[in-house]
């Protein structure tokens, strides 16, 4: 239940509730529509979208055009070694990177650079960094 008096933002409370629902569903299952979530929890459209984006960024759900929000299956992590002196950061994926790495629209990539030269670009939600 959403507590409007809580110090936790409403979208995070909603994300917690949706995360519990996602945990009970099989991979590929459709989540309720954004409208149904709004009506069930008495929240606004922006709150629902923020909560769903948070779950997407955590790799728990994905959005498919024409299908809505779906539960993602287990994701194999890509291990990326970050050498000493390298820089690692996340940024929005370009359309080309979305295609190359199977990233949903609005998704992010993990970039590793050494001396200003890009040495690695991977899907952020599937990347596990190890530091040397």
Automatic annotation (TrEMBL):
The organism's place on the tree of life at top rank: Bacteria
* Any Pfam family: GntR
* MF-aspect GO terms: DNA binding; DNA-binding transcription factor activity
GO BP term, pick one? negative regulation of DNA-templated transcription
Q: Which residues form a coiled coil?
A: none
Alphabetical list of InterPro entries matching this protein: Bact_HTH_transcr_reg, Tscrpt_reg_HTH_GntR, WH-like_DNA-bd_sf, WH_DNA-bd_sf
Q: Tell me which PANTHER family the record gives.
A: GNTR-FAMILY TRANSCRIPTIONAL REGULATOR, MANNOSYL-D-GLYCERATE TRANSPORT/METABOLISM SYSTEM REPRESSOR MNGR-RELATED
Q: What is this protein called?
A: Regulatory GntR family protein
Species assigned in the record:
Micromonospora pisi
């Amino acid at each position: 239940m959403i507590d409007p008096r809580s110090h936790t933002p409403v979208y995070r409370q909603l994300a917690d509730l949706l995360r519990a629902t996602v945990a009970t569903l099989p991979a590929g299952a459709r989540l309720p529509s954004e409208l149904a979530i709004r009506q069930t929890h008495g929240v606004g459209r922006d709150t629902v979208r923020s909560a769903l984006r948070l779950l997407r960024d955590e790799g728990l759900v994905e959005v498919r055009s024409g299908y809505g929000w779906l539960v993602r299956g287990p994701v194999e992590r890509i291990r990326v070694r970050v050498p000493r002196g390298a820089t690692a950061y996340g940024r929005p994926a370009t359309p080309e990177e979305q295609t190359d790495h199977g990233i949903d629209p609005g998704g992010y990539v993990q970039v590793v650079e050494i001396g200003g030269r890009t040495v690695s670009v991977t899907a952020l939600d599937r990347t596990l960094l190890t530091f040397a």
